[in-house]
Sequence to fold (869 residues):
Amino acid sequence: MIGLQAYLVLAALVFAIGLFGVLTRRNAVGILLGIELMLNAVNINLVAFARFNGDLAGVVFTLFTISITVAEVAVGLAIVIAIFRVRRTVEADRLNLLRG
Amino acid sequence: MTLETVGFGVVAALLLASSLAVVLTPNLFHSVLYLAAALVLTGVVFLLLEQPFLFAVQLLLYAGGVVTIVVFAIMLTERLVGDRIGQASRHPINGAIVAAAVFAGIVGFLIQAPVRATAPAPAGDTTAALGRALVGPFAVTLELLGVLLVAALLGAVYFARSEE
Amino acid sequence: MTLPTRLPLLVLLLPFAAFVVLAVVAPLRRAGARAGLLSIAAMSVAFMAALVAWVEGFRGEATWSWIPSDGGPIATVGVLVDPLSNAMLVLVTLVSLLVQVYSLAYLGDEPPASLGRYYTYQSLFAFSMLGLVLSPGFLQMFVFWELVGLCSYLLIGYWYQRPAAARAAVKAFWITKLGDVGFVIGIVLLWSATGTFDFGELFAKAQEHALAIDGLGTIMFLIYLGAVGKSAQFPLHVWLPDAMEGPTPVSALIHAATMVTAGVFMVTRAQPLFALVPDVLILIGWVGAFTALLAATMACVESDIKRVLAYSTVSQLGYMMAAAGAGAADAGFLHLLTHGLFKALLFLAAGAVIHAVGTNDIFRMGGLFRAMPQTGIVFIVGTLALAGVPPLAGFFSKEAVLSGVWEAHLTVPFLMLALTVLLTAFYMFRVVFITFFGRAFEAGHPHEAPWLMRGPLWLLAALTVAVGIRLAVGGGEHEAPGWLVPLSLASAFVGFALAWAMYQRGLVDPATFSTALAPFDFLARRRYGIDALYAGLYRALVLGFARLIGWIDRYLVDGVLNVLSALTLRAGAGLRGIQSGRAQDYVYGVAFGVLLLFVWAQLWR
Fold:
């Protein structure tokens, strides 16, 4: 029997990998991919807790998370495309209008 | 070592491998494909956790929807820019250290957390129970989600429309 | 409130109303002569009222509480009407009126706007001086005291484009302020000891011998310091000659007849208090007599006609103060009144001369009697009055002062004053002979002043004679020693004769005379080094201190602030680097935050 811990460690690993991707990717789309990974890790956590606590709410929550993720991806990509039209680049390093 | 354990080990290994591939492949298009693989494998993890409905949702929405959108986006920007989008990593060592530290922090918590009794495997059709929960206690949340999706749709259209 | 207080209040408020109207209604002020007519109209009504109050001999006091507190007001304002203030009211309004009329012609060439400004100041001055005179307490007196100082500053600096006038205005302000510091400290000390500013209460206490305060001598000395500054007593007399940079009518009004006598008036008013401290009184007498002598010697070598009169004013103020110090404040006050008349006359006549000749230097005048006999006559009348020739007004008041000082057994001051009589006659006739007689100067065609100027001159001359005759007829009650009149007359005659011999006949060469008295001549021409001393002190102390403060401000205060601001800027620039604008760097921040949360949870929970 695989314990809760194993799933949580797996999720943590995926989360860390996703974080690494977010931190290191130069391409805005790449960063979005990293975020997807992190969200997936969260989903694994939610489902694992739901399974081992016998509570269906976690699963429902995962459904919501997936839907919101889809929305986020759609909007995020739309923004990437809009920025790309204006700045002719999707390199995150160049998108530094927020600089103080 | 049971079959289940072996299955989990294999799935976990594959998931980690494809995740790493997502963040390390220089070619953006490849990393999207690896992401699709990773998402499918996550769905398999859901299967291991006895949630077949979630597996289906994961497959349809994520592997089907999200990956398709991303591919479209890449193709669009590529078409606009005229050459293939590669991607290098910036400060990979810093990122690795920070990511590893976060991981270590989480694991540190997991080690300290008390082990709890495992609930019995769900009996019967969880999908039906899920459906009842969605239109029962979570009905309002579901409706709000619908609103959010509409808003996201409109926002995406607004952002991505070409300026005329 | 009855007529005896209401009428003086009217006298007080009329110039104030004129001032307010002129100050507020700019078009009227810019109209120049019309502004002057308004001011003159207010002044003449005020003069009538003052005359009525004086003739009727009004007495009364009306006060209103000013600073409220538990157990009655701390201070009151109001009017105190008695013969002293009535006489001053008449003098102030009369001279103000005549001077304002005279100024219409004297300053007729001024641009209308600045002439309006002049009359605005004049009205304010009249108000301030009348308020000072009517003050029923030290506090109100101090307020008006400072107001007249302000007006003096404004009017000396009337031609503020001239550096000399601006400097003189500042000097007058500064030096009188030196005395005023003592004055205000003295007032406050007196108040803290007695709990009242009110003259009436203070005098009542003085009579009941209830004023046995420790350090009353010091307090009265400090109050006297105010009079030293205002009435140009040694060693604070240096501002008055410089104040001659103002227009001549201003000199006549403020720096001869009214404001400079405020110190004498104050000492006279507070006589019951000064009487309690004989030491201070003796000091006042000595300083007054010394001032009289010192200023007279300086007047003898001065070539600027207005400055001669200014030194003469200082000298005569010394007489008044000496009388006050000798306990003969009435004599001093009488001299104040008569001196106000004939000194205003002299100044206005000098103004007419200056107006005609266009210079202040007496050695560039000469033979003017033929060109302007009327001015010459009134000037000689004033000179005779000042020199103390009977039956003119100055004679009687000066005799009263001298006898008062003699009877107070202040022998040395008496001798100084007697010598001053001689010098007074000498320097005044020196001016008369050089200016009105002697060789005529070729340049220019001096002519008699217009009637607007001559009218006041004649009026003042007539008053000088009339008051003298009035005193000769009715004022014979002082019991002077019999040798006094011959002595002072002889002194005056010697002075006159000396001037005549030196400047009219040329019997004695002034140059040989001055070599004979070389040390005095040397010192007097350099004003005894007092101005230089003050200038040096000013430069060394005030400017040095200012430079020190400036250095501290520039390098210490500003330095600290500059360092602080530089640090802030540096820190800001450093912190700015954190805001790279790249979203991923912010994700690092989030990750570190999460890590911090982990650490916090591990270590502190």
Notes: Chain B has a mean pLDDT of 82. The helical segments of chain B are 3-24, 28-48, 52-81, 92-112, 126-135, 139-160. The CA atoms of residues 96 and 163 of chain B lie 40 Å apart.
